[in-house]
Amino acid sequence: MTGLALRARVERRGVDVEFAVGAGEVLAVLGPNGAGKSTALHVIAGTVRPDDGLVRVGQRLLTDTAAAVHVPTHRRRVGLLLQYPLLFPHLRVAANVAFGLRSTGRARAEAVAAAHRWLTEVGADDLAGRMPRQLSGGQAQRVALARALAAEPEVLLLDEPLAGLDVDVAGAMRRLLRQVLTRDGRSAVLVTHDLVDVATLADHVVVIDGGTVAEAGPAATVLSAPRSPFGARFAGVNLVIGSAAEGGVVRAGATAWHGVAAADVVIGAPAVAIFRPAAVAVYRQRPHGSPRNTVEVTVAEVDHSGPAVRVRATEQPGGAPGLAADITAESASELRLAPGDRVFMAVKAQEVALHPAP
Questions:
Q1: What sections of the protein cross the membrane (predicted)?
Q2: Among candidates 241, 257, 240, 253, which has minimal Cα distance to 324?
Q3: pLDDT tens, 257-275?
Q4: CATH for 236-356, among 2.30.38.10, 2.40.50.100, 1.10.8.60, 3.30.1330.10?
Q5: Confidence class for position 278, pLDDT limits 50, 70, 90
């Protein structure tokens, strides 16, 4: 098993990132559109050359700008699976899967045998004689995965491979990916916008925003206690950015957020307050005997599409997402909220977790 290390600066795209993936681990790369996620993947694949950087897989150096090293894409042993399968339309399924091995000089019989073996692994050997136009979206992605794996990559790069698939097909593909990645010990980098992908596939998470790494950590930690605005939006929790003060407090401007401080919070250092929308109550008037955390906000959105009614406030100072509250339909009916209304949001101190900021 081999790990992956990346450091890359691509000036024309405003990207300057660094991260590593352990042997046999899956790293999920999150971030808004245009943040630099796909650029990082293409630097690893060798299709984008960084202005400054290094790519190492195990003991093999694939890119090193200081030493003028750039291994061609076809010799990197890096597999790339995209949102679109991009199968060769003129080749049957088996020939598509065998293509990578044939291009490295493998004998035809050996390549075809390997293609059938991998098609069987992904549950698609019955499709071997079909043309790509005869495949459904889910079938085509299974074939694309078999093609990527048949080339025996040490690292698998997954750029939103499940986007556009229906729920059942995406679920089956997740199970297949987890099985293959866990069994064979390949390192993998997964770019996704889907929380389920992260929860079911990823060991670690990196959040890229504005071309740099905004947050990194174990997947469970980032999902339960994100430290960046995008991480909070992705995980669906409230996040307030400020600095730690004595007494279990994060100060954000003039507002003091009281909560339960983690052991690694340092007084005076950057810190965040995190709490679930379900823990937030909404009032038209400031509540009597109000919780220690009560703030006046402007309503930006009232969303009735979920099991609870989501009330979202306008963006916080500094660009963090507006605070969100999940309230019952009955409460929403009584409050009769609309965008532009001024309301009070309140949350008990024991519901607020305080952590160091990245």
A1: none
A2: 240
A3: 999 998 888 999 988 888 9
A4: 2.40.50.100
A5: very high
Q: How far apart are CA 103 and CA 105, in angstroms?
A: 5
pTM value? 0.77
Spell out the domain ranges in the chain: 4-221, 236-356
Residue 185: what are its φ and ψ, rounded to 5°?
70, 25
* Model pLDDT for residues 142-159, shown as the tens digit of each residue: 899 889 888 888 999 999
Identify the three-state secondary structure at position 38.
helix
Strands 78-82 and 155-159: parallel
The Cα-based distances of 247 to 4, 254, 266, 290 in angstroms read: 42, 16, 12, 19
- Which CATH code, of 3.30.1480.10, 2.70.70.10, 3.30.565.10, 3.40.50.300, is assigned to 4-221? 3.40.50.300
CB-based contact 316:240 (threshold 8 Å): yes
